[in-house]
UniProtKB/TrEMBL annotation:
Protein name: Phosphopantetheine adenylyltransferase
ATP-binding in keyword set: yes
EC class of the enzyme, as a word: transferase
Subcellular location: Cytoplasm
Record keywords: ATP-binding, Coenzyme A biosynthesis, Cytoplasm, Magnesium, Nucleotide-binding, Nucleotidyltransferase, Transferase
Listed GO CC annotations: cytoplasm
Positions marked as site (Transition state stabilizer): H17
Amino acids binding ATP: S9, F10, H17, G88, L89, R90, E98, Y123, S124, F125, L126, S127, S128, S129
GO molecular function, one term: pantetheine-phosphate adenylyltransferase activity
GO biological process: coenzyme A biosynthetic process
Amino acid sequence: MKLAVYPGSFDPITNGHIDIIHRGARVFDQLVVAVLHNAKKQPLFTIEERKQLIRTVTADLNNVEVDSFEGLLARYVHKRQANVIIRGLRAVTDFEYELQFASMMRQLDGEVETLFMMTNNQYSFLSSSIVKEVAQYGGDINGLVPVVVEDALKRKYGTGE
């Protein structure tokens, strides 16, 4: 069985992330969306909130599991006995960091491949940070995130109608 891990902060999950999840789920037998607990960041949503939002928006995908981890991704991937890590690329500016990331993963575990997936062009500008900033000031994020995520952001920021 080909098992892939799609790691990220997903704070919050965007339509760009969902595009990668749907495409990854078509390629692999099982896809684990792994929410990173990063002690260096102050997330808007808790790990459990992020996992629940992801579960809600991927409920139609039978081969997608949502999990969380902290520490080295290589250890998590090894523990899950995964074959592949999926990384999304939005623009050429992402490539340098992702190349370094993939090279380090190869150093840590030569048995795991890193697969880069180009995001759909309509989401090439999209990031969780941009979505949060627009939502914080009451801007329109319709079409950038699923409705359930849009509602959660409005509740967090108190910007709902």
